[in-house]
Amino acid sequence: MMQALLQSLIAAELPVLAAHDVTMWGYVVLGALEDQAVRTQNALAEAIGADKTRIIGTLDRLQAAGLITREPDPRDRRARVLAITERGRAVREAVRARIQSNENRLLARLSPADRAGLLNALRTLSELPREEITGAGRP
């Protein structure tokens, strides 16, 4: 059930992302930088569960579009410090608003109690450490 729902939700988000010229990974990066204004590329990759070499293209596109900045880390010139720009915040907010509007439309099909229960369950599960979800480290 979750797989089919997730695929449908992604299909609903893709046109929203395309309208703002952002990929799904680009949106994830903008969200991570919004939550914590400055990160190195390595820390960002770890936080979003991406391979650090594979997000470079995404970062290049976001920087070229003026959505993020990448500056040398004063503590380690080999590293880059990332920050979201005002334009990046505006794009993220516009995308998030459209996505949330669709989610609210779907959640309106549930009774208030079911909606509250679903959101509570999702919140609880999303706050679990990645290792707990993946079962990493278990025999």
UniProtKB/TrEMBL annotation:
Domain of life: Bacteria
SUPFAM superfamilies to which the protein is assigned, alphabetical: Winged helix' DNA-binding domain (SSF46785)
Organism encoding this protein: Actinomadura luzonensis
One Pfam family this sequence matches: MarR_2
SMART domains: HTH_MARR
Residue stretches making up the HTH marR-type domain: 1-127
The name this protein goes by in its record: MarR family transcriptional regulator
